[in-house]
Amino acid sequence: MLFLSKFLPLLIYPLGMTFLLLVALAWRGGLTPRQRAVLLGAALLLWAGGNRWVSLGLARSLEWRYLPAGGIPSADAIVLLGGDTFPASPPQPIVQPGQRAFYAATLYRQEKAPRILLSGGSIPWQTGGDPTTPAEQMGEVLTLLGVPADAITLETKSRNTAENARFSAPILEDWGVERVILVTSAMHMPRAKALFEAQGVEVIPAPTAFSVTQASWEAAFHGGWQNFLLGMIPNAASLDLTTAACKEYLGIAVSGLRP
Questions:
Q1: In degrees to the nearest 10, what's the CA dihedral of 215, 220, 221, 223?
Q2: What secondary structure letter does DSSP report for 151?
Q3: Are the C-beta atoms of 187 and 63 separated by less than 8 Å?
């Protein structure tokens, strides 16, 4: 009964229902071979994208490239990339921080670097006209976490990762910085590191916000048949993870990077 309570909803939720409808339509009569192939192809694509094993494998291939071995060494500055906070907006009373800001504050308290550069501007048509940039939001969080204001510098013009690197590089050069600790999400790190290095910045990767941990990886692949079957049914969380990984691979390809 417990297994059915986990299994059956996956078939009733929108993603699972869409998958079943595509399969059912593909097998109804009166279709040409091409029409049937299109429907089955769509079902296969939806199944693969929403499959736990595919999503975890794609995410892991990005996130585990720069696992910290033996701790993070010291550097001249910490660069914290935006995109991991949500602004204070009614009814939300304060900025909602993500793991990046907490990790950057932790590294600062560990005296890994004496200053933090926060890089992240906003795109008005994505923010509903909110004038507060991601860099400013992260600065507010870092201040609440005890990082002194004079250790924080904001770069608020960048609108994507390439601009994060391009607009941060001159600031770091003016500081006389030779190498930085780059803090961003683990999935984003390969692309971000490559873009900063293309600007001549020596990078120490400090990934955080892992989607796939050692525990979650082992749990996914060492469960019983019930766990295996649940992982085979398309679900929204896995599709979201697959989409995020595809975004990173697409960004790497479009930029011509070799992370």
A1: 100
A2: G
A3: yes
Task: Enumerate the β-bridge partners of residue 207.
Answer: 184
Please provide the DSSP assignment of 184-241 as one string: EETTTHHHHHHHHHHTT-EEEEEEE--SS-HHHHHHHHSS-HHHHHHHHS--HHHHHH
Whole-prediction pTM: 0.89
Positions in the chain short of pLDDT 70:
84-97, 125-130, 259
**Closest C-alpha among 167, 94, 8, 198 to residue 190:** 198
What's the confidence (pLDDT) of residue 28? 85
Nearest-angstrom CA–CA distance, 22 and 200: 49
Q: For the segment 96-151, what is each residue's pLDDT rounded down to a tens digit? A: 668 999 999 999 999 999 999 999 998 776 666 667 899 998 999 999 999 999 99
Q: Is the separation of the CB atoms in 42 and 220 below 8 Å?
A: no
According to the model, what pLDDT value does residue 96 have? 60
The residue assigned the tokens 């082992």 is 218
> Is 1 strand, coil or helix?
coil
- Is the preceding peptide bond at 91 cis, omega within 30 degrees of 0? yes
Rounded-to-integer distance, Cα 90 and Cα 122, Å: 19
CB 242 within 8 Å of CB 55: yes
Delineate the domains of the chain, giving CATH numbers in brackets.
2-64+213-255 (no CATH), 77-208 (3.40.50.620)
Chain-centre distance for alpha carbon 151: 26
